[in-house]
Amino acid sequence: MMMVPPWREGLVVAVLPDIYRDIVEIIADAPGPVQAKQIVPRIGLPTTTGKIEGTQGKLKRLAERGWLDEDAPGQFTLARQGPGRDRDNSQ
Residue 54 — φ and ψ, nearest 5°? Predict the structure, then answer.
């Protein structure tokens, strides 16, 4: 079973595991691109190298599966066609 399914039309953020859902919701609320080091404290983790690298891996996974875009290296936004473009999708 794949923990983070590829995004497709009609798929909502609620299908993601809690930590991934939290990450997508943080990025949805951000005014611009977000880095892993900005997300770590918002999901309640210490800002250690290991936690930042682990979060970076989750961000990359979400980008690979169409939930996020990586506009520049390490800078993540919601995917242009993806979740959260319609605020009802994050419910």
Answer: -65, -40
- The contacts of residue 31 (CB under 8 Å, 6+ apart) are none
Whether 34 contacts 26, CB under 8 Å? yes
E strands along 1-91, which residues?
68-72, 75-78
The CA distance from 15 to 54, in Å, is 21
pTM value is 0.86
Residue 85 has pLDDT above 60, yes or no: no
Rounded Cα gap, residues 83 and 12, in angstroms: 7
Q: How far apart are CA 47 and CA 38, in angstroms?
A: 9
